[in-house]
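Researcher: Hi, I'm a grad student and pretty new to this. My advisor asked me to get structures for two proteins we've been looking at. I'm not sure of the right format, so I'll just paste the first sequence and hope you can take it from there.
Model: That works fine. Here's the first sequence with its structure tokens right after it:
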Amino acid sequence: MKITAVEVFLCHAVRVNWTFVRVTTDSGLYGWGEASLEGKELAVRSAVAELERYVVGRDPFQIERHNHYMYETPFWRGGPVLGSAISGIDQALWDIKGKALGVPVYELLGGAARDSIRYYANGWSMGAESIDDLVSRAGAAVTRGATALKWDPFGDQGLFITTPALRAAVECVAEVRKAVGAEVDLLVEVHGRLSPANAIRAARMLEPYDPFFYEEPVPPENTDELALVARSTSIPIASGERAFSVHDVRPMFEAQAVAYVQPDPCHARGITEMKKIGAMAEAYHIGFAPHNPNGPIATRVCQHLAAAVPNFVIQEWLPVDPAPWRDEVMRGSFPTNPDGTMPLPEGPGLGIDIDLDVVAAHPYAPRDMNLYTRPLLRRG
């Protein structure tokens, strides 16, 4: 079997554009991957086209060999664009191999380490206009079955958050905790926007509300700052969505800067590297919690990794996607269990297919990811 083509399909998804990668073989088998990178989809598409020169004509089963070559051989390596391009191709190769052998991808990764996959809901807070509105949406998310909720309460604030804004952010968390009770886990997102001093100050104000974790409290460039925050609060720290290889996460682990690592399957060189990051985290007693505000293929990839990685803890997912055509695109839906978990994925390979007619009906539309335009929620 040989690879004959690598194609990229962009699908507008309201908040972002999903970037789907299809790898085709001369046997008729094809595989799907996702390389969605907010605001940089066209750059990723070009990077995939450059990698196609290498992969066409090669054996799709030699996944480790191809992943290593695409990352290690070029002089310029690393970063989100190249990492995303490799990710899309890598996922598609695993999909092909699973289909060819008639087994789910997680079986190729060592088999299931659990019977179901706990998830936390993201996206439930989108569009909230006040703290009261946020509280109402939190209750609705729990009613739909979520047992863990994540959102960013810091609005349009940056490194040097004002005291009134900080108090409003903490009030958001306090009110959601009051509304949903102690049994629902709250995960506080920061998007790497606070200075170390302000991240520590915010963490100490948030501690009474018992967050499950505190995500990316400081910018990702300085691991020492992240470690300082980790040593200064009782809230477990989560980070790693802007890490693209085992080389990027190693300093975090050595500095004991994180309790949970969050590599993104669309950016961290796909399933091959994600499995390695999970294994390295296991050696440091760090939980594996993949980052995934992405499209349907990425969610399916995360399910396979969650099934097979022994130190997996919890999976990010958008139960209600801003793009209401998600189920149409994936020719199905993501079932959930009443206890806030998802069943293991079924079918050979990734167990997902894409309807290109639906993709064509929602063509690419430019979108930028700007964290500083989100409203800071207040009362009323």
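Researcher: Oh nice, that was easy. Here's the second one.
Model: And its structure:
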Amino acid sequence: MKRLVELKDLKTHFFTDEGVVKAVDGVSFHIGRGETLGVVGESGCGKSVTALSILRLFPSPPGKIVGGDILFEGKSILRKTEAEMRDLRGDHIAMIFQEPMTSLNPVFTCGDQIAEAIEVHQGLSRKEALEKAVDMLRLVGIPLPERRIHEYPHQLSGGMRQRVMIGMALSCNPKLLMADEPTTALDVTIQAQILELMKKLKGELGMAIMLITHDLGVIAEMAQRVVVMYAGKVVEEADVVSLFRKPLHPYSEGLLNSIPRLNRPKGRLHVIPGYVPNPVNLPPGCRFGPRCAYVEDMCREKEPELVDIGGGRLVSCWVRAGGRREEVA
């Protein structure tokens, strides 16, 4: 599969009064054309900052990309000017943000906000842009789109606002759609409708999707490959079937064991012990070591690398990746 986006040892740090927060610290993965890649992990693991780094939308200062590279269709995003980035955003890469009520402007109608992106990127007139905005609302399943384009975000339900965000993101036919927790705070019925809509539009438009979520059920339904992140790093990468059948990294195993299942005996749900480390004061060695049931002395001494163990699987674990103990000296 031809690669659409490739991250190479990406490092995005935030320089604060308390110290340097290594939000993204050496992340490498790729997204193929027409592929859905799931990115999972607890809050604060670096999922959203990774996506914002691709679009160069994080606040700067305090944020800064201090290392690595991001390639889109083989060309470096980090070398583009701000004017070139404006052309790239929306037209080639679009993003659905986590909370539509804070992403949509409350003083403009939904139609105005969709039409603005169409006018800027596709050069249509105001009338033509509004007509396309109606078409986009119809495409994402909003009833009475001719009326909805004149309504403000607060007049719509949470599910309809999310559909407006999807319509806005898809209005310029992007090659990559990044969806950051697209079903957060929606009831299960609306969640299912949004996910089904994204699958349908992906098939129709042929775009790739980077799906950021903590919900492994969503990943199982939507993604072909999964990247598991912890404390700013990728700890495992695998196809969906392999990851769910046999997770290799102890953190991936803990996430899967935390899912409630009907076929389990009644009792307390499994939890991963401990807490996510302070990003300003990370533990030595493996960052998951203080919470890991399989921790060894080596894990506390040196941080494991992300190792390709074959079959498209990568894991960052001294115990599960077969050691490479000779590197510790």
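Researcher: Is there anything I should tell my advisor about the second?
Model: You could mention this: The chain has one domain: 3-92+174-327.
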